[in-house]
Specification:
about 0% strand; mainly alpha
Amino acid sequence: MPLSAFALILLAGIIHASWNIAAKKANGDARFSFQASVFNMVIWAPVGIVLGWNVVPGWGQAEWGFVVLSGVLHVFYFIVLLRGYRKSDLTVVYPLARGSGPLLSSLVAVLFLGEKISLVGVAGILGVVAGVFLIAGGPRLWQKAHDPAQRARVHKGMRYGVLTGAFIAAYTVADSYAVKFLAMSPILLDYMGNLVRIVLLMPAALQDRATTVRMWREQWKYALLVAAISPVSYVLVLYAVQQAPISHVAPAREVSMLFAALIGGHLLREGDRLLRLMGATLIAAGVVALAMG
């Protein structure tokens, strides 16, 4: 993995952890996702217009097909993620989502896109996933719930985490194919895909307008933060994909768990510091192995 791609992934990891913590604190649903998408459209409009003015008219069916596919997959991803945050803890949903996503992404890239990965790279993937598992609570995911209600909450978070990971893998492979093999601009792919997300989320926002307005007033600061920085983190990853194999970039993104453990653990007052430290060490070692293999 080139050093430039590695640097992009590190920066994207910090940003990604930050906006996920903001989304967790917002405690929103599809209406929050719609609000963030609208803010995204407004904030990044100058960039989208300048870059797309001469490019977008030349897109064919393949390009527009991947734009729509990206928008649909990101909508499902964000809705499932937000629902998981409402039903369970960030330290269960986020790590499991981030851990299952790269496994599926790398598997698809190796099996269907012709990418190759060395034993060192495989060891790196396993290190990242093992680290994510420890940060999520390790064996305590099954043991720490002493009453049925708490146990159900943890298990529900695990289900939402894995389902979110499946959507992460799906949009990662689809978007990576678009920027790598169709040479689409990562910025334009994300911006135009966001317009698709607005259309898909609009019915949920208009269904109960009074509630939507109330939630927008309560959550607008978090939505604004997510809209401003989440596209940056993902576009950086797509630029990294143009420089390195998907099967390396997707797992290396999980360096964001390092920052989520440090920032989220402090802001959300969540415990298990020793397990998180061990998990962070495994993630760091796994990312280094991926960079080498």
